[in-house]
Design a protein that fits this description.
heterodimer; A: alpha/beta; 11-stranded parallel beta sheet; 6-stranded mixed beta sheet; 9 helices; 17 strands; 18% helix; B: mainly alpha; Potassium Channel Kv1.1, Chain A; 3-stranded mixed beta sheet; 3 strands; 58% helix; SKP1-like (chain B); SKP1 (chain B)
């Protein structure tokens, strides 16, 4: 605990030296410590799902170095400039683990032989196994080296707990080592890994994922960037996925078939949140999921997006919908509260048996569950006022309307 | 948009009694300061006493907070659309960070310990990165010499380690 008692001690006698003062006057904006430079520009609250998708490294517990009753009294800045004092080993585990996290994982493994203080730190660091190929590539540490290192570490540490596994490669990636990666996934599943993050953005060619991914039964969160899913065409040679506890699915730059994606959505009974970005290989998605609560994506290249049976779906946001020619059809989503982005390009829009095509063609059931709607319209063009007015008739219980000016 | 907000300063008092005044928003980079202010303390003239951290170290921490607060505030004020400028500013800040943390080991320890106690994540990470940089690509014995780590293994332990993970000994493969 770093609790500070405000009164007593030396603070009363403090002299106002006040040396260093920020040069600038305070700005108007609120300071925010997070600098998510990779997140897209602000969207309605629906798209900002930091809880689910904010892929941040685990936060370090604030250490109790030299804190109350910490004993030893070490760690203070006023310690004698100690030659021969092993100061680094006085640092708390969390800080040493943070140091390890900046070292390529196999170099980090070597720290286990430094001293007894360091002996088990690397094993602890495997709780969040960060298997990233060193970048820029180092001499003799190409793809083969990375693959062999990971295989070695998994074999040498059969009982060390691993909670998450992040796998990043460059160059040719694991194209020639599919069998190795396939066996890792089996091992990791047996060891109860909950979170898997595969990032192959800079590999050429885009690698194919091993089939064992579909049987990764302990997985709760899956993130895949730039990979191809096993089977592309239907009928599939692979069985339906067995991912009973998967809650979050986040796919970007992935090539997969319509059936493959739909299988994942409908066969993962715990799936709550799905984010799809730049998915190729399909032009229609038909969503059937009893558990899905949030579905986000660009959906820019779709011809049709159908929500067939989604009793728990509350948020559906497709940022590319207004620019696509997609037909949006919502058949059964009684809890849908948030819907976006609609635009004049999205037509026809089918809501239950209401068909909206600029003017209301047929109107029986209205979307009374929708509270929050986002639309994109070009204000310069005539006729859009009518479009918006007509569109709003489909949503009688709307509380919030987000309007953005579309680019075109 | 501009102006209107009152300037709130806080005072941090080091273990050797030196006071440092800085904008509250800059000081809020520290989780410890955040907690203190949140429970309604630390705003008075007595300031916030920072135990175990000397004035010399605290002055560096204050420089870091001011720099990062100013950079974030400037980025906040900028047009969000100007991606190029954002990237450039970020790069500039990173360069400043690397220069700032290029210190002798003892100072680096002091700052790391201070940042950790104050809960300034960015500064902890920066120090850790610097230490990692010193360790990268070195053999175990080179790291021991560089950082003054005492090898306290018994010969049995060493044999066990060697058996557990033979690859950790090899330097290049």
């Amino acid at each position: 605990m770093c609790c500070v008692r405000p009164s007593h001690s030396d603070s009363e006698t403090s002299s106002q030296l006040g040396q260093i003062i920020s040069p600038d006057p305070p700005p108007c904006g609120k300071y925010s410590p997070d600098d998510d430079d990779l997140t897209p520009p602000p969207r309605p609250s629906a798209v900002d799902t930091e809880g689910e998708f904010g892929a941040r490294p685990a936060k370090r517990a604030r250490g109790a170095l030299g804190g109350d009753g910490g004993g030893g009294g070490g760690g203070g800045g006023d310690a004698a400039v100690g030659d021969g004092r092993d100061r680094i080993s006085d640092l708390p585990d969390a800080v040493l683990l943070s140091i390890l996290s900046f070292i390529p994982f196999r170099d980090a493994g070597r720290t286990a032989v430094l001293s007894s203080r360091w002996r088990h730190l690397f094993d602890q660091s495997l709780l969040e196994f960060n298997a990233c190929q060193p970048f820029p590539p180092e001499e003799g540490r190409g793809c083969e080296w990375v693959i062999r290192s990971i295989t070695d570490i998994l074999a040498a540490r059969p009982h060390v707990p691993i909670r998450s596994f992040r796998f990043v490669m460059y160059g040719q990636g694991f194209a020639n080592n599919l069998a190795d990666v396939d066996s890792w996934f089996r091992i990791l599943a047996r060891r109860g890994v909950r979170e898997l993050d595969v990032d192959m953005l800079y590999t050429v060619p885009t690698p194919l994922l091993p089939r064992s991914l579909l049987e990764f039964s302990s997985l709760e969160i899956l993130r895949v960037l730039s990979c191809d899913f096993f089977y592309f065409s239907w009928p599939p040679p692979a069985p339906a996925p067995r991912l009973p506890v998967l809650r979050t699915l986040d796919l970007s730059n992935v090539c997969m078939s319509q059936h493959c994606l739909q299988d994942m959505l409908s066969h993962c009974p715990s799936l709550e949140c799905t984010k799809l970005k730049n998915i190729t290989g399909l032009d229609k998605i038909c969503v059937r999921s009893k558990s899905l609560v949030r579905l986000f994506g660009d959906f820019g290249n779709l011809n049709e997006l159908v929500v067939q049976d989604a009793p728990n779906l509350e948020e559906l946001v497709g940022i590319g919908l207004p620019l696509s020619k997609a037909k949006v059809k919502i058949v059964f989503a009684p809890k849908l509260r948030v819907l976006g982005y609609l635009g004049k390009g999205v037509r026809p829009l089918v809501l239950h048996d209401t068909v909206f095509d600029g003017g209301i063609v047929q109107s029986r059931t209205l979307m009374s569950s929708i509270k929050n709607l986002a639309i994109q319209v070009p204000f310069s063009e005539k006729g859009h006022t009518i479009f918006v007015a007509q569109l709003l008739k489909c949503f009688p219980c709307l509380e919030t309307l987000q309007i953005e000016v579309s680019q075109q | 948009m501009a102006a209107g907000k009152p300037v709130v300063m806080v005072t941090l008092v080091s273990s050797d009694g030196q006071s440092f005044q800085l904008l509250e928003e800059a000081a809020l980079l520290s989780a410890m300061v955040r907690d203190t202010i949140q429970i309604g303390q630390g705003r008075g003239p007595a300031g916030i006493p920072i135990r175990n951290i000397t004035g010399q170290t605290l002055s560096m921490v204050v420089v870091y907070c001011n720099k990062h607060y100013t950079a974030a505030a400037a980025a906040d004020g900028d047009d969000a659309a100007d991606e190029e400028k954002k990237v450039a500013n970020k790069k500039q800040l990173r360069e400043w960070d690397e220069q700032f943390i290029n210190l002798e080991q003892d100072k680096l320890y002091d700052i790391l310990v201070a940042a950790n106690n104050l809960g300034i994540d960015g500064l902890v990470d920066l120090c850790c990165w610097r230490f990692a940089d010193m360790m990268k690509g070195k053999s175990a014995s080179e790291i021991r010499v560089k950082l003054g780590i005492r090898d306290d293994f018994t010969s049995e332990q060493r044999a066990q380690i060697e058996k557990d993970s033979p690859w950790v000994w090899s330097r290049t493969t």
